[in-house]
Write a structure and sequence with these properties.
- The protein is mainly alpha-helical and 256 residues long.
- The chain is 57% helix and 10% strand.
- It has seven helices and six strands.
- Helix 1 runs antiparallel to helix 3 and helix 5 packs parallel to helix 7.
Length: 256
């Protein structure tokens, strides 16, 4: 898991202080504790199993009794009771029999509706919990991958800017097939090669221009080119072929 070092506990951002540890005079923060990631994963698996278990039960209810097997059983028992009362001579006229059947059907219907409502509410609650834990897992993955890039020495990002950088990342990146994919609405934002989604490293390069105050040694302006049109001794064509890390290194050098 990524670990950030700070000179003192006062330098640790407020959102990370609860995870800070001091050893040999150094203050370190594990920004994505493995215990948190394991906890989110286990809870999400448990909720998924609960939802999976209710599926066959609901299918059986619908097949046998519309939606409620117990209500169907109660209805059948009630009709048997009416038949016995007719056989015993307690109910003799058609009106009496019809009234008894109507009362029984109404009772069963009311019970069925109550049970169906309770099942709908229980399933809705489970779905909401599953969605919540899924969102937490997504944020945890974004935290991990973005922080790993940010804490690299050549990223140039100020440690205290990490919470704001993560907030921007939450709004940009989605998790699809276990990978971070930047999107503008439903449209994928592609990287420098035009074929693959923009990586976190490429995004950090763009972020230097969008939010220069997040970076060390930056007064808010963009990297200036030389008189010969080069930046750091390289042409625009050469820079375009470089990796995001190489571009960051050149940008940081221009700000010193």
């Amino acid at each position: 898991m990524p670990v950030i070092s700070f000179e003192s506990i006062d330098a640790v951002p407020a959102g990370l202080k609860e995870f800070a540890k001091t050893e040999d005079g150094k203050v370190t923060v594990n920004v994505v504790p493995s215990v948190k990631l394991d906890e989110f994963r286990e809870k999400n698996i448990s909720l998924a199993q609960q939802i999976e278990t209710t599926g066959p039960i609901l299918a059986r209810i619908k097949e046998i009794a519309g939606d409620d097997l117990d209500a169907f059983t109660n209805d059948l028992n009630g009709l048997r009771d009416i038949a016995k009362r007719v056989s015993d001579g307690e109910l003799k006229t058609n009106d009496q029999i019809e009234a008894a059947v109507s009362d029984r059907i109404k009772a069963v219907k009311d019970g069925y509706e109550d049970n169906a409502k309770a099942l709908r509410e229980a399933n809705k609650a489970l779905e909401q919990k599953a969605t919540t834990f899924e969102q937490r897992l997504i944020r945890t993955q974004i935290d991990k991958e973005v922080t790993t890039v940010v804490i690299q020495p050549d990223s140039g990002v100020r440690p205290e800017a990490l919470p704001d950088v993560l907030t921007r990342a939450y709004n940009l990146f989605k998790v699809e097939d276990g990978k971070l994919v930047p999107k503008n609405g439903e449209a994928v934002i592609y990287g420098a090669n035009g074929a693959d989604p923009m990586t976190v490293s490429e995004w950090i390069v763009k972020l230097r221009n969008e939010a220069p105050h997040y970076f060390k040694g930056n007064n808010g302006g963009g990297a200036a080119g030389g008189k010969d049109g080069k930046i750091g001794g390289f042409t625009q064509e050469q820079i375009a072929k470089m990796s995001p890390q190489q571009k960051l290194a050149i940008a940081n050098a221009q700000k010193k």
